[in-house]
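The records we work with from here on pair a chain with its fold. Taken together, the tokens spell out the fold as the letters spell out the chain. To see the layout at work, look at the sequence and tokens printed below.
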Amino acid sequence: MKFGTFDDNRKEYVINTPKTPYPWINYLGNEQFFGLISNTAGGYTFYRDARLRRLTRYRYNNIPLDTGGRYYYLYDNGDFWTPGWMPVKRDLDSYECRHGLGYTSITSERNGISVNQLAFIPLGHNAEVHRLVVKNTGSAEKSVKLFSFAEFCLWNAQDDMTNFQRNLSTGEVEVKDSVIYHKTEYRERRNHYAFYSVNKPIDGFDTDREAFVGMYNGLDNPQAVAAGEATNSVASGWSPIGSHALNITLAPGEEQSFIFVLGYIENPEDEKWEALNVINKKPALAVMEQFATDAQVDAALADLAAYWDNLLSKYQIQSGDDNLNRMVNIWNPYQCMVTFNMSRSASYFESGIGRGMGFRDSNQDLLGFVHQIPERAKERILDIAATQFEDGSAYHQYQPLTKKGNNEVGTGFNDDPLWLILGTAAYIKETGDTSILDEQVPFDSNPDNTATLFEHLKRSFEHVTNNLGPHGLPLIGRADWNDCLNLNCFSTEPGESFQTTANIEGRVAESVFIAGLFVFVGPDYAEICRMRGLDDVAADAVAKIDNMREITLTHGFDGDWFLRAYDHYGDKIGSKENEEGKIFIEPQGICVMAGIGVEDGQAAKALSSVEEHLDTEYGIVLQQPPYSKYYLNLGEISTYPPGYKENAGIFCHNNPWIMIAETVLGNGNRAFDIYKKIAPAYLEDISEVHRMEPYVYSQMIAGKDAVRHGEAKNSWLTGTAAWNYVAITQSILGIQADFNGLKVDPCIPAEWDSFEITRVFRGDTYVIQIKNPNHVSKGVARLTLDGTAVEGNIIAPVGDGAVHQVVVELG
């Protein structure tokens, strides 16, 4: 069942009912200021850090789930409603939500009044703009009242939910003209405030939540709206909100627009005040002046559209498959950018409070957006590297506001360092910029203790070789990529974190996954060494990589597939010897991606075992059989019910590793079949089963052992976005940046005839026609650049900034 449709020309997903199976959301903002908005106008807004600079409140685990947002109420002669349907839930005569790239537009109608609510964050501004267009669609004059509503958070979202005894005495606002200023704690250590304005004279306001909503009412029936009159309340100590009241009279066919701006201002310490306890409003007024007219709003929207057109132009495909086109050209790269901005911090499944930016996560996210904004990729790499320790280990997370490591989560995830090599290599391949390797980068964010980025990469590589277990495989530490495989935890305390509790001492538990990742990433490190003239270091690295490859085949292969790990006792995990959890997806993917076992047929066995034991109609499950009880030696993975999350759920993040692995073996049909099983556009027709948005990937889908097989969770912020983008654009469609140029190596379904890709690379634009007259899956028979034959399949950068024609014939 569908609940909407793709509008490819406008790059929008159009939702035609407010009653989607779950709130279907969009993200606003591309730089420092961000908002989440659902198809019923729920969500929240923050500046840089969803925990430390939360502007508006959002209540998780609420009933109804998606309650709280930037709402607008229409009062029509005793009847009142909201254009997003929620929270009032009055029947609407019509409804449509259009989620676009960085904006959302909701249009609805009731009783002869049509309202369009447009929300976006203009480029270069720390403000969210909402334009309300109210139209009289009837034949008689109408007089209605418009009420806005935003509930301010007390800046720190964690403190906001816990420290009531303080926070219920600190709320402060100022109201001047048509602007409500939220200045809680500004009198002391803060130099920042929020404002909420409208570009018309107002007929009333409310800033006290109790006065507006009522002590015993909810947002579905706020007493000020129900009465049709604002109370002009001024919050003092209690919960501050922002609500404007406007009286509107419309002739038949007439429409009026109202531009609301919700913004964030920081003042220099010596410019905080206009007068005693009166905040300096000049910066806020300057922002409002830039969005005072429809023409200004339209211009900002045009700038936003141009921004996204430019980003998306870096890689475009023309094929006969609409779902493939819209995923590659629009929605997958869009999600990659949103995930880059947010990491895993702020969604409808992450509160933005407990997590910062992930070290491993952010490096993987780089893979999906580095071709779009390499300059921001460079900044992110340096930020990540600065949270590394001298021994090569790293904080697992850091806070985006402070850019310092998150002590609450700490370190000890032993795959983390290798991802820094992969992310840096991806940046250099895309840009050719090796100067990044000479950047001085702190250890543990200490500016007095720095080394070159290359030295950080060297210590990342050596962190593996310095931490090997009894079989010569890498020690797992707290966990590897699978944070829930906790082999050194042994937790018996309810509610204790599996990732942060004190691990038992012991250097026994080993990860076959990290071994595969080491062999996969290692050649990039060796090549970077050669580029710096360090041939001896490169040769030593290659020897260690080759040794790890042999050790993995000797001690990490179980006859038909790769083992997952060895536990604290030295016993196998992911083996035929196990009663449960006999085979895992992660090592089959990463080890074959690394080329381990390709020559002797072990890789083919491993992928065949994946298809036999792990494949389902909705994707590949993480392991089989699922764990039916809690295993003290395995940790969190065995706490989930069978079929959910890491206990045999379809963890979409690692499905693309199997896609890529299949392309290593030349299996294009199989690779694309896996791709289609989890790519959201292909799931639009089963939205009642899948439930999450049909335009973005989810982290997981319930596996075959679950009660609700096929039901997705944790949409938007997931490494699934980047890895699926890499799998389809680089491994299946086969256009990938390399150190020496643009590599062309498709691995496609044999029945495909042709397709065309436009790829911007190092300032040049390559229009690549790929023809498949012999109907093969893999192999470049001929390649020409502007009519001239090219030896091999790597196009060296031309460097003239022009458009170049590439013709590729497979065979």
The CA atoms of residues 119 and 770 lie 40 Å apart.
